[in-house]
Amino acid sequence: MDNVLIKTFLTVAGTESFVEAANRLFVTQSAVSLRVQKLEGELGHRLFERSKSGVKLTVNGEKFERYARSFLQLWDEAMYQISLPDGFSNSLSLACQDSLWPELSAQWLISLSKKMPSTALNFQIGEPRNLSQMLLRGVLDVAVLYNPEMRQGFKVEHIMDDRLVLVSSVKDHGGVLGSDYVFHNWGPEFLMAHARWYPDKKPPQMMVQIGAALPKFLIANGMTAYLPYRIADDYVAAGKLHFVKDSPSFPFPAYAVWTENKSADLIMLALDELRVAAKNAPWIELENKK
């Protein structure tokens, strides 16, 4: 079976849209449709129910999805194992959200390389949605994310707690969220906590979703926003951003997400080292920094 058809099927299933799948695969929508039709022809069953609002998996599509992920994982694993240098018997594909590097994940990677010398490690950073899609497709074995998607087949474990802190490019910011405030959506828990603490705050003019690129935006434009502490601390230490005194901070937990496509023993070893790295990750009490 053509693995291109499998990748296309999983991308459509993940996005529930032929248009979005085409964008992610860098092909035309008609190419996506033809691939799905060809796969449905080979299987002898419809995989998607199509409507104006998008596409949904049929009952047979849901059954096939699990096997499709396994097929793709086995294909990638076979290709990777064939190309492994002599001396390596296993491989792990790992990733983290960009703001969790380097304090947490760099330590994790180094400790893994020492504890698992016969395992080849492929590590990358990326945006949460892309990493979730890679987990779905079986391309990743373990990812560390702040706000993981809850998907069928995902295993999730709370790893550590970060904090969302208010920072400003203005040194002595008074803490009033005025016209300089940029609202970044850090997930549903932040949205609820923010609304409870600032019940009378009108929607700000500027709302963004730019992740680790936010600090440079604040610095360049004299703005204020909430950032994860592990992003903010280096900028504060360099004097480019400043903690806003007496402002609330909000919990921002990080999670390990993995699938069961890889050997359980190998995954558990990787998670054990991640737990150790999380415990040893540098942390300074926020009140001492403000």
List the helices and strands and how they pair.
Elements: H1 3-15, H2 18-25, H3 29-43, E1 48-51, E2 54-57, H4 59-83, E3 90-97, H5 105-115, E4 119-126, H6 128-137, E5 142-145, E6 155-168, E7 182-184, H7 188-197, E8 206-208, H8 214-221, E9 224-228, H9 229-237, E10 242-243, E11 250-258, H10 264-280, H11 286-289
Parallel strand pairs: 3-4, 3-5, 7-8
Antiparallel strand pairs: 1-2, 5-11, 6-9, 6-10, 6-11
Helix pairs in contact: 1-2, 1-3, 1-4, 2-3, 5-10
Walk me through what this model shows:
Helix 5 links the parallel strand 3 and strand 4. The strands form three sheets. Strands 3, 4, 5, 6, 9, 10 and 11 form a seven-stranded mixed β-sheet that branches. A two-stranded antiparallel sheet has the order 1-2. The chain has eleven helices and eleven strands. It is an alpha/beta fold.
Descriptive labels:
single chain; 290 residues; Arc Repressor Mutant, subunit A; D-Maltodextrin-Binding Protein, domain 2; 3 domains
Question: Brief overview, please?
Answer:
The chain is α/β, with parallel strands linked by helices. The chain has helices spanning 3-15, 18-25, 29-43, 59-83, 105-115, 128-137, 188-197, 214-221, 229-237, 264-280, 286-289; strands at residues 48-51, 54-57, 90-97, 119-126, 142-145, 155-168, 182-184, 206-208, 224-228, 242-243, 250-258.
